[in-house]
């Protein structure tokens, strides 16, 4: 899962003090609705569309905001907590109360949703498991970042900023090494949370004044040129491996003491020519007059030719293990239903559901005499026709009949949802199958069959690791049931 001691989101945000995971109203200026991948989809597949989650979704994802799920916390008067968690599609996520944006780019740690439930204001973001640039530069344990990787990080930040600018987000507040995160492949991503003004007292910089753009000190406003200045400070971090004041670095540059500026931990393993280019670019970014600083396009154009190891994976250059993608071995013995789901034997699943009939529905419905109306009889007749069609493998008819039963809504049946889920799988409709299996779980939260059917649907959607996790949960529930 990656190291959890670092945070995707370390800054302080405004929030209501009575709720530790809550924030001010969503900033609508940051919700662009853009789905542009900006030169490539997010690593590991497309990022989910920006959407709304209920508070119960997020409570379930984080085990009711358990302290065990906290990734980081910051702030004093109004503590700001970041949690990791699993959504219903089993993705690991990080969530934080803050403004919201809908940008999509492979160089950004993308936001995937929000929650606006009562007084709660929460954001849901992709979880970046491999720490921050600050951790790898300043607090490394095994190895420092090699030179080629530092150049990759610099270009990635520039590309992210240029993309944001083209989408109308020209301001990025408090750009620093803590805003740069590394994903499961070790690729650098820029946090989206710097795209909005987000501190209680209106300040946009949390860093020492020595690192703050001079124009911000004069008028308290962030401009696009201020972002370039902050980018220059990150270049200094990458060059020196330390967080040194820009004024001190500029004095060294003017005195042509470039080698003294370079990180000694690199042990001279860098190109002097490339370092000279980066030092020159940092010097331009840190100019006192905003108009004398380069634009984002020049940053990208200057850094692109310096990429000398495009085919070497980032995780190799960072010296971190590749995230394991193989499905985990089940921790519990599998029942015949579990084994059928594991090997995706839909015929065997069908036979088991036919044999089980409605045995597990007992207790899910308690109907009064008055509810046995003609409508009820019609509804049960629809279910009966669905059962005949299901038994005879007429799955499309079964879907129609079971849908008539479900749509009336007087009676709920987890078995009907499980059966319709299998019908959807056999009709090559895995999304609908997953929805039905999840509905079965809602009706009967501890029913192993509901989890098994989710596992089968997730496998059909090629979410193998998630399917294996769900299969293991189902087997665990079945084991508990047998012990009882």
Automatic annotation (TrEMBL):
It is found in: Cell membrane. InterPro entries: BSK (IPR045845), Kinase-like_dom_sf (IPR011009), Prot_kinase_dom (IPR000719), Ser-Thr/Tyr_kinase_cat_dom (IPR001245), TPR-like_helical_dom_sf (IPR011990), TPR_BSK1_C (IPR058209). It is a lipid-anchor. It comes from the Eukaryota. Residues 1-43 are annotated as: Disordered. Keywords: ATP-binding, Cell membrane, Kinase, Lipoprotein, Membrane, Myristate, Nucleotide-binding, Serine/threonine-protein kinase, Transferase. GO terms for molecular function: ATP binding; protein serine/threonine kinase activity. Residues 32-307 form the Protein kinase domain. Its main location: membrane. The keyword ATP-binding applies. SUPFAM superfamilies: Protein kinase-like (PK-like), TPR-like. GO terms for cellular component: plasma membrane. GO terms for biological process: brassinosteroid mediated signaling pathway. This is Protein kinase domain. It comes from Macleaya cordata (Five-seeded plume-poppy).
